[in-house]
Design brief:
33% strand; 2 helices; Trefoil (Acidic Fibroblast Growth Factor, subunit A)
Length: 227
């Protein structure tokens, strides 16, 4: 009788663990061909909503201050822009996600999970090529910049992180910025949108919800660089 109870209890724990994993496991981000984005591969973003009287396309770095090695992220007015890469931020949860493969050696990029984002082309200065958010006193806005500092947060605290969130129709996404400054803090994610500053279409963390930037992903191929 005692052994039966122990066996039933263990079976229940296994069932609850499996059910929780199935419920929490996020979908993979898809490119416009319906294929999962892969960690370590390079992708362009392709805007979904055309802008009236403006020919705008993908994203690329732009110089805010070369002397101070300050680079922002902008939307190019022509061409496909610069491709980008994604990597999982190391957390116990993300470590479990990293075991989910689309093929024997391929790992998918999940939705709604903390990521580091960087362009595949380095700006050549600064502590890193990872995206970050910087507050601009003049405009009172948080712009997406390049050059995040190395992570030195205590265990359980992410700090700055971006995620990819599905919007609207399948294959349509937006970037969101999800900071975490303390272990007990409630995380609130803000959509990343586009604002025009000095004639430049810049990526900004939209704390008011007014700016938006829906897009799809296109896998990088060498011939795309000539588009």
């Amino acid at each position: 009788m005692k052994n039966d109870l122990i066996f039933s209890f263990i079976t229940l724990l296994i069932f609850l663990h499996t059910a929780t994993q199935a419920q929490e496991e996020p979908d993979a981000v898809l490119d416009w061909d319906g294929n999962a984005l892969l960690l370590g591969e390079s992708y362009y973003v392709v805007p979904i909503v055309p802008i009236i009287n403006v020919r705008a396309s993908g994203l690329l770095p732009f110089v805010v201050s070369k002397e101070n090695c300050r680079y922002g992220v902008s939307q190019t007015l022509s061409g496909v822009g610069v491709s980008m890469n994604f990597s999982l931020i190391v957390t116990p949860y993300n470590h479990l996600l990293s075991r989910k493969k689309t093929a024997p050696t391929e790992f998918a990029v999940p939705e709604n999970v903390d990521l580091d984002i960087s362009f595949s082309t380095s700006v050549g200065c600064g502590p890193s090529d990872r995206w970050k958010s910087d507050y601009d006193n003049a405009t009172e806005q948080y712009f997406v910049m390049i050059g995040a500092e190395p992570r030195k947060n205590p265990p359980g605290i992410i700090g700055e992180a971006f995620q990819i969130r599905k919007v609207g129709i399948p294959g349509t996404y937006e970037f969101v910025f999800c900071p975490q400054t303390c272990f007990s803090c409630v995380r609130k994610c803000h959509a990343v949108g586009i604002v025009v500053q000095g004639g430049v279409r810049r990526l900004v963390v939209s704390t008011t919800g007014e700016a938006f930037f829906p897009f799809s992903f296109r896998k990088y191929l060498p011939e795309h660089a000539m588009d």
